[in-house]
């Protein structure tokens, strides 16, 4: 996309445009690819629009790569980085309008999340593992198996659940491993781990273990509640150790 041809794009200050389109134009005109911005700058640019944070997040569904402290550790809590601009959603006739409608349908989203057990089908991250303050639709996102641009459809079987990080990596064109390197790693697994991997392949997802579920829920407790669980666990381990020693 040629960022120099700004005169060919609408003015982001035009209030007749939708707020999602205005945010995209603002990012290109004011921020620019490769530059950081803050939530305060976003809110100052769009005063009175209470849903502006949501409109910004929705741009990721159109191929916009917008990083935060959840995906890049060096960013501050309120900082974001426009890593890469996505589809020019301000252009008339774009299929992104249909995509926005699809992702706004609660029933379809719910079916995809339920089918995938509210977990990323690539890394297994579940909705309860995200930041405490993050809603599920920020931690988990919907993505196409076959992109719309490549002839993919909006059917349920062409939609999968990804965490924000896996979705970003796939959208950014990160080089994927080759078959031989993956098979070399698989060959080195123990028979038990090979059987476990085969089960995951058959299910097409990696279900979290009970320990991982416990850890995820533990992380969502308040500090004083975490202390209580830690003390109980410590006592349970000591009691079991003492019992084993006495046998």
Structure description:
This protein folds into 4 domains: 94 residues; 72 residues, DNA Binding (I), subunit A, CATH 1.10.30; 25 residues, no CATH class; 39 residues, no CATH class. The strands form 2 sheets. The chain has a 3-stranded antiparallel β-sheet with strand order 1-3-2. Strands 4-5 form a two-stranded antiparallel sheet. It is mainly α. It contains 11 helices and 5 strands, in the order H-E-H-H-E-E-H-H-H-E-E-H-H-H-H-H. 46% of the residues lie in helices and 9% in strands. The N terminus is likely disordered.
Give Rg in angstroms: 22 Å
Q: What can be said about the biggest beta sheet?
A: 3 strands, antiparallel
Strand content: 5-15%
Mean pLDDT equals 79
Offer a quick outline of the entry:
The chain is mainly alpha-helical and 247 residues long. 46% of the residues lie in helices and 9% in strands.
């Amino acid at each position: 996309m040629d960022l120099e041809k700004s005169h060919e794009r609408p003015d982001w200050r035009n209030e007749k445009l939708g707020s999602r389109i205005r945010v995209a134009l603002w990012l290109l005109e004011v921020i620019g690819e490769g530059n950081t911005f803050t939530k305060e700058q976003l809110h100052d640019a769009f005063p009175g629009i209470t849903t502006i944070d949501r409109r910004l997040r929705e741009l990721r569904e159109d191929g916009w790569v917008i990083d935060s402290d959840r995906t890049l550790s060096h960013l501050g809590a309120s900082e974001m980085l426009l890593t890469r601009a996505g589809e020019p959603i301000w252009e008339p006739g774009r299929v992104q309008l249909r995509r926005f409608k699809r992702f706004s349908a609660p029933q379809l989203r719910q079916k995809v999340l339920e089918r995938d057990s509210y977990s990323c089908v690539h890394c297994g991250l579940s909705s309860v593992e995200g930041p405490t303050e993050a809603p599920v639709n920020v931690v988990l996102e919907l993505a196409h198996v076959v992109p719309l641009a490549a002839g993919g459809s909006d059917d349920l079987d062409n939609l999968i659940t990804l965490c924000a990080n896996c979705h970003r990596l796939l959208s950014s064109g990160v080089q994927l491993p080759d078959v031989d390197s993956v098979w070399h790693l698989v060959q080195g697994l123990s028979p038990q781990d090979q059987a476990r991997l085969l089960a995951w392949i058959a299910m097409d997802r990696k279900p979290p273990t009970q320990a991982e579920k416990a850890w995820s829920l533990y992380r969502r407790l308040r500090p004083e509640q975490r202390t209580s669980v830690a003390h109980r666990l410590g006592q349970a381990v000591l009691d079991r150790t003492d019992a084993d020693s006495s046998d």
